[in-house]
Structure formats: structure tokens, C-alpha cells
Fold each of these.
Amino acid sequence: MNDDERLSRILKAAGDTTRRKILTLLVQEGALRVTSLASHFEMSLNSVSKHIKVLEEAGLVTRRTLGREHFMAAELEPLKRTEAWFAELKSIWDLRLSALETMILSEDDQ
Amino acid sequence: MNDDERLSRILKAAGDTTRRKILTLLVQEGALRVTSLASHFEMSLNSVSKHIKVLEEAGLVTRRTLGREHFMAAELEPLKRTEAWFAELKSIWDLRLSALETMILSEDDQ
DNA sequence: TGATAAGTCAACCATATGGGTGAATATTGA
DNA sequence: TCAATATTCACCCATATGGTTGACTTATCA
């Protein structure tokens, strides 16, 4: 998987309210089991399990299995990719603006 | 539409490669027409038009119509919401970690 | 005025997504 | 050993998504 697909996965995973809530819960509570996470939502355990899988595939959550219990933990590092993308956009934007400025200034010279 | 839905829209809009490319083009080139944008992609004008609509509904793009031409421009401000969300997550994370640290230190006391 | 150009709208298609249920698997504990 | 627990897997369903084509509207300009 290339960087672009990875970024798409992260953004798509983060683009769902339930999944963002799961992430928030993990960030504030630390590692939690699937059932424990599911108790916060009005949807089946299975649906929550599927959301967790999406987060996991985006690298936003890691799993530690102890016996029959799966402990999920938030992994914020991948979100840096989205910040990096935004920062890149802003830098391109600034480049263009400064180029425009230079153009206007040189026109003033004439 | 509440903040959460708005954030979902932004993240979903940004979660597609084609749409991110459109945003990048607009950031580096400034306002561009739909046809001009579409020329960069191997898909129909209509498909690009639909992607633009998604970006527009997320507030990531604005439209200025002059006669039959529609000029699209990038709007980076909504992306700050995603940064704010990330920042909030990080601050919750730090809160928990410092609470943990305090706990461990007080245990050392005993 | 009439052809062409720029876009959107509407309908369609295949696949993805978010939800559900029931069965299967693996671990625990009595 | 056997029942209960934790979780995933395999389907199923409705709706969303990303793409297509064709028709429609509005401007432009020869």
C-alpha cells in the first residue's frame, strides 16, 4: 500500500462519528476490551467490532490479545500523516501567494 | 448540521484521492474551471463535477460562476477543524498520561 | 439565429459501507 | 468436562459512493 492509499484509509476511518468516539474513548481511558467499548454505543457488539477493524486497518488502533479478551489501544501517530498533508497544502498555497506578490511588485516597478 | 457531522463531511471529502488531487491543483494553480480540472483526470467531466460537489458541500471548495464558466477555488479553513479534533485527542491523551504519572509518583511515596 | 461550449441533472450500474443476526471459535472457570 | 464468556466470521439487507451515459439549460459567438 502506498502513502496515498494509507492517507485515504486514515481519513476514511476518521470520517465516521462512531469511530471517532471509539478513538476518543481509548485515548481517555487507555486500553479497553471490545465489549467494554461496545457498551458505550447503541449498536450491536458486532458492529462495534467491525468499526474497530476499520480503525485497526488504518493503524489508528492496535490490538493486544490476552486469552479471549482483546485489548484495543489508540494509536495517534497515523494522524500525523493527515497533518502533514494539510501542512503540504498550506505550503503550496503560500508558495503561490508569494509568487503572486512578487509578480505584483515587479509590475509596480514598471 | 452540527459540528460533528461537519467534521465527518470534511474528513470523508478529504478521504478520496481524486478529491485530494483536485484540492492540490486548486491550491497550486488558484481558481480553475470544472473542465480545466477535469483535464487532469482520466474520468468523465461529470464524475469530476460530482467530486467537486462533494468538496463544495464540505466547504473545502467555493464556486464563482461567470457566465457559463464555474471557477472553483480551494478553501483550506475547514481543514482546521480536523486539526482541532486531532489536537483535542492529543490533549486528552496528555491529560491521562499526566494523571497516570501522578498516580505512580504517589505510589512511590508510600 | 443557430451551432457550439460549459456545466449540471437524472438515471443507471457495480461495489462499498454500516447496520443486523446466527453460527463458529477459543478461552475461562466451576 | 461442560457451560458461559469474548470475539470474530459469514451472510443478509438497505443505502451510499464512484463511475458511466444521455438529456437539459445557459452562455457565447460567428
Amino acid sequence: MENELGHADCPVTATIALFDGRWKVMILYVLSKKSRRFGEILVRVPSISKKVLTEQLRELEADGLISRKQYRETSPRVEYALTDLGKSLCPLLIDIAAWKRKYIGSPNQGETKLPD
Amino acid sequence: MENELGHADCPVTATIALFDGRWKVMILYVLSKKSRRFGEILVRVPSISKKVLTEQLRELEADGLISRKQYRETSPRVEYALTDLGKSLCPLLIDIAAWKRKYIGSPNQGETKLPD
DNA sequence: AAAAGTGGTAACCTAAAAGTAACCTTATGG
DNA sequence: CCATAAGGTTACTTTTAGGTTACCACTTTT
């Protein structure tokens, strides 16, 4: 373990802060599959409210992990997508999941899965 | 990005929860250098209070990342150390720091560093 | 005898995050 | 002309993490 973990504003803490929020990892997961509209994300992240989803999307956008594109069509239409930075995070998240499988155990065998 | 991020109780979220807490990463960092007594950690984690340090140590212990050994010597003496599980986490934290350096930038050049 | 160090606990407070429910705007369909 | 849908916003309440201060039990030092 190197010195990099010891700074007053620690890079690990700073990075974790990017996806710190009850639902952010799940939102990133949903978007990693496919760009999605607001309502599609809402349905795929179980039990999140519109308000909190809006907040977390805004934060993810501010941190540069996702993009928001508004299409002025007939009905309002907003598409969210991972940015390149957001995509670069995915392998890291997979490493984290891999650590859990290896050292803690399988990710809760037989639990409910989210729809794609 | 694989399915593993999509479970209702997501392994990534579960893993992050292990070191989610204002000071946990820093505590792990301190202990990664050397086993330490309560008071030694207190001094090395800037501005943490006894209460919060106690809480976070208890949680880290409950999660199996650190061990607590009480020596009934003359004055009370308690040693905290990383467990094997705790040690296994260090490379992961380093990966997270490395991601930040690569995609966000250097870990705040010239900032104050913690004493060892 | 008093003070100081060690590793805490107890009672209390506060700010921020998250949750709930109602409402808004523009547009279309019936 | 009313209802519905999308993508929110507003106002309010609840929950939680973290912080502050005081105190404790025990032992050694002065």
C-alpha cells in the first residue's frame, strides 16, 4: 500500500465519492447496458423516487460520468448515457465485484435480479 | 460490464459499504503501515473524535477487516491490526487511487500529507 | 493525595441525505 | 375540454452520520 492513500484528501475517498449515493452504482450499471430515458431508469432502479433519481443524475452529470441530452420532440424526451469517463469506471467496478466474490463470497446466490 | 452489478443487493455497493464512512479508508491506511493502538490511530487520523473512531473501528471489526486485541497489562492497552481480509483490500484501494490518477488527475499535487 | 494517561461510554445536537406527496408544463388523443 | 404521459420541481418530513462535551474505571507518576 503506497503513500497515495495517505493524503489529506485521499484519492480513494475522492473516487468513492463519485459513486457514493444510495443508487449511483445501480444507475451506472443500468446505463452501462444501454443509454436510457429518465423513465426507463426510474423503472429499472427499484424503489427510487423521481426526486432522488433527478438529484443523483445531476450529480453524476456534474462529475462527468454521464451525459444528458434533451430532444425537443413531441413529448419531452431526455436521454442519459455514460460518458467516456463513466465507461472507464466500469472495469474498476467489476474489479470491486470480483474482490467480493473472491474474498467474501458469491453475490448472494439466488437473489432477485434486475431486469435488463 | 457484467451482470454482477445488477443484483438487488449489488456486490459493488456491498463492497463499497465496507469502507464507507468518513474515516474508514484513512484508518485502513494507517493500519496498513503497522498495527496501532487506539490512541495512535486517534493522533494519525486528523480531527476524528474518540466517539467516531470507536464507532468506525467497531464497524470495521464487525466486517472482519480489522482485529482488536486487548492486553490486560498495567494500563489498558488495545491493539488494532488489519486482518487478512483487510490486507486483501489494499490492492483494490490502490487500483481505485490509480484510476483517479489516470482519469481525473494527480491526487492533488502538493497537498499536506499525513505522518506515518 | 492529586494529576494524568488509556480506552472508552452516555447524552445530546446538527446538517445532509433520502423519502413522500402534490403539483407543473407541454403535447397529444379521445 | 378532459385525461394522460414525460420529465421533472416544490415543500415537507424522516433518517442517519457525524460531531461535542462530559464523564468513567483503572493505573502509574509526581
